[in-house]
Specification:
By secondary structure, the chain is of the alpha/beta class. It has a single domain, classed as Class I glutamine amidotransferase (GATase) domain (Rossmann fold). An eight-stranded mixed beta sheet has the order 2-1-3-4-14-13-12-9. A four-stranded mixed beta sheet has the order 6-5-7-11, covered by helices on one side.
Length: 203
């Protein structure tokens, strides 16, 4: 079973519909006991980082997310919150992945980055099986994550940024796979395949 975290910052209906199309048992919850019973966890998110962190704290989800060994897929804001901090607020975030998020320079382009985009660089990883650098995914975001050693995919809009990140059992995508058609469904299916495999620790 897949648990989709509800913390008042998620694009819950679209994510739930995407797993329904994949015929995958799932539930939307903010209860840590439910999360403990799940095989894998989707950490969605839209909105403001500091408000999202406050909601996570209110639901006792901060430490749960930091300590879980279950596969977790952060989507959009959910991915951003995996990092250490952000200029949005500004605020400290979960600190699972090193790095600080910055806002796109509005002097260099329209913000937010909204629409379809491809990858700039893509590494081989099970999460990206069957996905190429030329595939388009749907983005909506004003803040971007830095590129670091845990980055497995980048995108470029004004600046090059982390589009896909993997550290231990944590996976994150800046785009919205649930809104990205068949190729987005492929990525979600790849995550489901990972959920049922042993965790590979990154060094």
């Amino acid at each position: 079973m897949i648990a989709i975290i509800d913390y008042k910052a998620g694009n819950l209906a679209s994510v739930s519909n995407a797993f329904s199309r994949l015929e995958t048992e799932h539930q939307i919850t903010n209860n840590t006991k439910d999360l403990d019973q799940a095989d894998g966890v989707i950490f969605p998110g839209v909105g403001h980082a500091s408000a999202a962190m406050e909601s996570l704290r209110e639901n006792n989800l901060v430490e749960w997310l930091r300590q879980t060994t279950k596969p977790v897929l952060g989507v959009c804001l959910g991915m951003q919150l995996l990092f250490e901090s952000t200029d949005e607020g500004p605020c400290d975030t979960l600190g699972i992945v090193p790095g600080h998020l910055k806002k796109f320079d509005e002097q260099q382009g329209k913000v937010p980055h909204m629409g379809w985009n491809t990858f700039k660089n893509l590494k081989s990883h099970p999460l990206l099986t069957g996905i190429s650098a030329n595939n388009y995914f749907y983005y909506v975001h004003s803040y971007y994550a830095p590129v670091n050693k845990y980055t497995v995919g980048t995108c470029e809009y004004i600046s090059e940024f982390t589009s896909v990140v993997v550290k231990d059992n944590y996976y994150g995508v800046q785009f919205h796979p649930e809104k990205s058609g068949d190729i987005g469904a492929r990525l979600l299916q790849n995550f489901l395949d990972i959920v049922h495999q042993p965790i590979i620790k990154e060094t």
